């Protein structure tokens, strides 16, 4: 099925995977790199590999958000105030 191979080109997978601050170019490069590495043979395999790439992208984003969030909070999740206690 040719449409599965063209899903990235036409943006079907990009819309649910990208949020504000994400680079569309980096997402497409990441996804295509994942496709090249896993080398799907059929349209179904290509679709599954693209889904894997989307989920990996989301997991990486969640990790970045957690790291950024933890730098703003103390060890127990309590937001520190500057100099007051």
Keyphrases for this structure?
single chain; 85 residues; mainly alpha; 4 helices; elongated
Task: Describe the 3D structure.
The chain is mainly alpha-helical. It has one domain (2-72). The protein contains four helices and no strands. It has helices at residues 2-5, 14-17, 24-38, 43-72.
What's the structural blueprint in terms of helices and strands?
Blueprint: H1 2-5, H2 14-17, H3 24-38, H4 43-72
Helix pairs in contact: 3-4
Structural class: mainly alpha
Largest sheet: none
Rg: 18 Å
Uncertain segments of ≥5 residues (pLDDT<50)?
Answer: none
CA-to-CA gap between the ends? 63 Å
Oligomer: single chain
Mean pLDDT across every amino acid position: 78
Note the total helix count.
4
Overall morphology: elongated
Return the domain count: 1
Helix content: 55-70%
By DSSP, the count of extended strands is 0
Would you kindly provide a brief summary of this structure?
With 85 residues, the chain is mainly α. Helix content is 62%, strand content 0%.
């Amino acid at each position: 099925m040719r449409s599965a191979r063209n899903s990235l080109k036409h943006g079907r997978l990009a819309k649910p995977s990208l949020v504000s601050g994400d680079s569309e170019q980096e997402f497409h490069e990441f996804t295509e790199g994942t496709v090249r590495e896993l080398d799907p043979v059929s349209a179904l395999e290509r679709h599954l590999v693209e889904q894997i790439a989307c989920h990996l992208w989301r997991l990486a984003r969640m990790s970045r958000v957690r790291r950024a969030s933890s730098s703003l909070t103390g060890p127990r999740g309590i937001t520190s105030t500057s100099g007051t206690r």
